[in-house]
């Protein structure tokens, strides 16, 4: 980001002072959007002596121009502030006072203000921090976290104390309710445990041309937002038909788990596939078919326990099912019956089509995931941390502590796309790229939402194919999370269920299309 700021000035003639102005104005705009009664709010702005503090001073000025009365505290002597930040300190002083906080006693005097504040703007430490926060800044961070429990804490660019380039914080970090970061996210903000300090991450453009980073092939970590999907033809042409949008085959379900098959099928239909067929054991086919009349079904021979029999994959029946299809999803609700595990292992090895493997489809490979690289066709796996732990022979805690590394290492080892589900779902590509999702909420931690995601990925793959699969899978993950967010707006997080996510998918598509076209 420092290099992008430098190039913005050198190549495009945009002054660094203008970038700071745009940044601070963006912070003020965001705060005003969150607090319509701005002039009635008690706002405390904490500024360091560097550029992050300069952004905070600009934000204070714009808030004052909107009728607010922010209180500004500078954690340095005024003469220690230099560069663009010094310019904005002078501008602020034309409007209001600055309280210099340079001792523990001075910090104690503002503790009551922190406790009573409606809004706290954190502009203490920025992306230039090296090592843990120390001294007065560290004490101030602890005080904000301890005292400002009822305030809306807004971090400028990055929560103070958080390293910008790693996922672990060596010292205290501001617990923000929202972080307004500039131009693009910082690596340290994206994944746990740091991400838990970020709150809602808002990316604000301050004037740096997008080509400065979009053309840089060395940048392999992507934040999933609508701009990532501009290259996909999401608007349908008038002269198309159902065959244009592919035919997804969903292999799922068993006795007692028919809902998993139905949810995956509904997810595929709502994701734009022209046709969707659910292949499920004969005893539950009638139940699955009742969920949605648009779903087609195919019966599979069953074991005595109502699960898929192994010989389905060992006979011509499997190839018959693949005929005319453009993508396959396998796994939800299949169970780990020994006969069904044999079916999955044989079918995966002998599937030339793009295949999304989930749930019991993954469990069938236990600690033998290395064989996945030997299959015939393109593969995407969608494990949650527990399933990933079984695949790689680690604990779920170990997977969670190395989410990005685990996803990328597995994608390379299996020559497959890995969708590691959970908070900030990761899509990892065999070529070393990774996409971190920006949507979703804790209400989606309920049975069946993963089955819906499997269907969405299959439906989009049936439509777009696998030639640009990382982006297609990223779109599916983004839409799934956005649908969950839209459903939570209506239902709340606690009562959210998987069918709510399916029902919200049309709105998620519309919202995403609007965002792409207005970007």
Walk me through the structure.
- The chain has 519 residues and is α/β, with parallel strands linked by helices.
- The chain folds into two domains: 2-217, Rossmann fold (3-Layer(aba) Sandwich); 242-517, 3-Layer(aba) Sandwich (UDP-N-acetylmuramoyl-L-alanine:D-glutamate ligase).
- Helices cover 43% and strands 14% of the residues.
- It has helices at residues 2-12, 16-34, 51-65, 83-93, 104-109, 111-116, 135-147, 195-198, 211-214, 258-270, 285-291, 311-314, 316-322, 338-349, 360-363, 385-392, 396-401, 403-414, 449-464, 469-491, 498-517; strands at residues 43-47, 71-74, 98-100, 119-123, 152-156, 178-182, 200-204, 221-224, 247-251, 275-281, 296-300, 327-330, 355-357, 379-381, 417-420, 426-428, 434-437.
- A ten-stranded mixed beta sheet has the order 8-17-16-15-14-13-12-9-10-11. It has a seven-stranded parallel beta sheet with strand order 3-2-1-4-5-6-7, with helices on one face.
- Helix 10 (258-270) crosses helix 19 (449-464) and helix 19 packs across helix 21 (498-517).
- The model has no long low-confidence stretch (mean pLDDT 94).
């Amino acid at each position: 980001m420092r290099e992008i700021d430098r190039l913005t000035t050198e190549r495009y003639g945009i002054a660094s002072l203008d970038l700071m102005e745009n940044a601070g104005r963006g912070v003020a705009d965001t705060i005003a959007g969150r607090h319509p009664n701005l002039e009635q709010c008690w706002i405390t702005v904490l500024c360091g002596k560097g550029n992050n503090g300069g952004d905070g001073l600009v934000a204070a000025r714009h808030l004052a121009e909107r009728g607010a009365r922010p209180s500004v505290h500078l954690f340095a002597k005024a003469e220690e502030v230099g560069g663009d930040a010094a310019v904005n300190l002078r501008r602020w002083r034309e409007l209001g006072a600055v309280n210099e906080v340079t001792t523990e006693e001075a910090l104690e005097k503002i503790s009551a203000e922190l406790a009573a504040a409606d809004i706290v703007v954190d502009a203490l430490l920025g992306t230039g921090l090296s090592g843990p926060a120390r001294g007065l800044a560290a004490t101030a961070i602890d005080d904000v976290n301890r005292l400002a429990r009822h305030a809306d804490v807004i971090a400028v660019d990055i929560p103070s104390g958080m390293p910008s380039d790693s996922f672990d914080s060596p010292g205290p970090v501001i617990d923000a309710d929202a972080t307004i970061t500039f131009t693009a996210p910082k690596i340290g903000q994206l994944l746990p445990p740091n991400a838990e300090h970020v709150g809602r991450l808002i990316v604000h453009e301050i004037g740096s041309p997008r080509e400065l980073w979009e053309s840089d092939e060395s940048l392999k970590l992507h934040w999933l937002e609508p701009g990532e999907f501009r290259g996909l033809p999401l608007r349908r042409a008038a002269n198309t038909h159902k065959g244009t949008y592919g035919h997804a085959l969903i292999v799922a379900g068993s006795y007692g788990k028919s809902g998993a098959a139905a949810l995956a099928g509904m997810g595929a239909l709502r994701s734009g596939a022209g046709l969707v067929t659910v292949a499920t054991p004969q005893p539950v086919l009638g139940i699955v078919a009742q969920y949605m009349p648009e779903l087609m079904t195919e019966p599979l021979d069953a074991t005595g326990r109502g699960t898929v029999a192994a010989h389905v994959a060992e006979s011509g029946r499997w190839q018959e099912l693949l005929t005319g299809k453009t993508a396959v999803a396998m796994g939800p609700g299949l169970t780990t019956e020994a006969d069904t595990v044999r079916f999955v292992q044989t079918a995966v090895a002998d599937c030339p089509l793009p295949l999304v493997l989930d749930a019991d489809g993954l469990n069938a490979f236990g600690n033998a995931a290395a064989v996945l690289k030997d299959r015939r066709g393109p593969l995407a796996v969608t494990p949650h941390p527990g399933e990933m732990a079984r695949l790689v022979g680690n604990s779920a805690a170990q997977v969670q502590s190395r989410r990005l590394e685990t996803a990328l290492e597995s994608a390379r080892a299996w020559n497959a796309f890995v969708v590691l589900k959970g908070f900030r779902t990761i899509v990892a590509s065999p070529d070393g790229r990774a996409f971190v999702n920006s949507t979703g909420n804790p209400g989606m931690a309920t049975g069946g939402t993963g089955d819906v995601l499997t269907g969405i990925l299959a439906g989009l793959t049936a439509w777009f194919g696998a030639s640009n699969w990382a982006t297609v899978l990223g779109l599916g993950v983004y839409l799934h999370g956005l649908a969950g967010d839209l459903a939570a707006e209506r239902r709340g997080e606690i009562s959210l269920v998987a069918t709510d996510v399916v029902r919200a998918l049309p709105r998620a598509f519309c919202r995403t299309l609007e965002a792409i076209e207005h970007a």
